[in-house]
Amino acid sequence: MTYCVLVCLLFFCGVLPKALTAVIQTQQTVLAAVGEDAEFSCQLSETKDILQVTWQKISHDVETNVATYNKQFGQRVNDGFTDKVGFKHTGLQNCSIVIRNVTEQDEGCYHCLFNTYPEGSFIGRTCLQVYELHEPVVDVSESNSTEEWVVSCSATGRPAPTVTLSVSQQDLSFSQYNTVSVSNTNATFTVTTTAVLSGSCKHSTQVGCAARVLSAPHREVMVMIPEVQQVYAAATADYNDSTSAIVIATIAGLTVFCFSSCSHCTPA
Ligand SMILES: *[C@@H]1O[C@H](CO)[C@@H](O)[C@H](O)[C@H]1NC(C)=O
Ligand SMILES: *[C@@H]1O[C@H](CO)[C@@H](O)[C@H](O)[C@H]1NC(C)=O
Ligand SMILES: *[C@@H]1O[C@H](CO)[C@@H](O)[C@H](O)[C@H]1NC(C)=O
Ligand SMILES: *[C@@H]1O[C@H](CO)[C@@H](O)[C@H](O)[C@H]1NC(C)=O
Ligand SMILES: *[C@@H]1O[C@H](CO)[C@@H](O)[C@H](O)[C@H]1NC(C)=O
Q: What does DSSP assign to residue 105?
């Protein structure tokens, strides 16, 4: 505690000079999925005489000018970035750019420089992190023993996604987890988690699979495992195909489940 206070005092009052970055409001990290647009914005919170705002990309410690917004000449996107970068909000105090359709190549850090007179440049820094996450694919197959299923879920992403299985019904549980990660040629990973679902399955059951990378929104797929064996066989046909197939299978499962419950309750 005391140590921390000491360090803090050293940082803010002593060792560090009054940093020029302190007055710039910007995001430390921007997270964007491949193919999305990423927006960076910098705001100089103190009013200064700003001549120009310059945006730079930093790669391997080399700064490349990407775009400028000048008091006199307005906005300009430099050669090599015209398809990639655009201004969102132009202002000398508050400036933002958009990186369109981000790819792995756009990853890295970017500087915004407020060139002021007479103090010089105030620099803000934002880093772009690009991720990729595809919808998980769930496969359910019957195990040897009657009350067990083998559930397998695969998700592809960059960095390697975490894959989590869940089950809606309390008296069912997963065991014998096994996770395999395979690296693809394009720097993504395909992670497959397989587990055995067992317990007394008296009703149809919903199995979920969620895939996550970094702090990005997760992607989740739900699959229905109906109670009756022959129904299950019919509904399983397209589980591995696509989401729409899963949805259709789910509806089929639900419908049959509903019919079977109805036939129990309603006298014919
Ligand atoms: C600065 O720009 C950002 C993004 O363009 C916006 O959200 C914010 O309200 C602006 N601030 C001011 C003071 O104009
Ligand atoms: C996005 O970038 C990818 C890869 O560079 C390209 O194949 C695709 O056509 C681009 N999409 C758009 C809408 O510009
Ligand atoms: C199925 O049974 C065979 C023989 O009893 C066993 O070798 C195999 O591991 C079982 N498979 C599963 C998925 O439990
Ligand atoms: C990367 O490879 C995986 C697996 O081959 C594929 O699913 C994914 O679409 C690829 N991503 C890109 C951006 O090409
Ligand atoms: C789905 O699984 C079946 C067998 O389990 C296989 O024949 C079929 O090719 C798979 N389809 C896809 C799209 O992977």
A: G
Examine residue 229 and state whether it is found in any structural domain, yes or no.
Answer: yes
Number of domains in the chain: 2
Q: How far apart are CA 136 and CA 99, in angstroms?
A: 27
Q: Mark whether 102 and 168 lie in a shared domain.
A: no
Closest ligand to C-alpha of residue 101 is 2
Q: Measure Cα distances from 231 to 111, 128, 171 in Å.
A: 59, 48, 21
Residues 118 and 226 in one domain: no
Q: For residue 261, give the 3-state DSSP assignment.
A: helix
CB of residue 143 inside a 6 A radius of ligand 3: yes
What is the distance in A from the centroid of ligand 1 to the CA of 121? Answer: 20
Residues 96, 144, single domain; the answer is no
Give the contacts of 257 (CB within 8 A, at least 6 positions apart): 203, 204, 224, 226, 227, 231
Single residue among 83, 98, 132 that ends a domain in this structure = 132
11 is a domain residue? no
- Atom 3 of ligand 1: nearest residue by CA position: 41
Taking only the tens place, the pLDDT of each residue in 143-199 is 777 778 899 999 999 999 999 999 988 888 999 999 999 999 999 999 999 999 988
In a shared domain, residues 214 and 93: no
Ligand 2 center from residue 35 Cα (angstroms)? 7
Report the alpha-carbon distance of residue 119 to residue 264 in Å, rounded.
Answer: 82
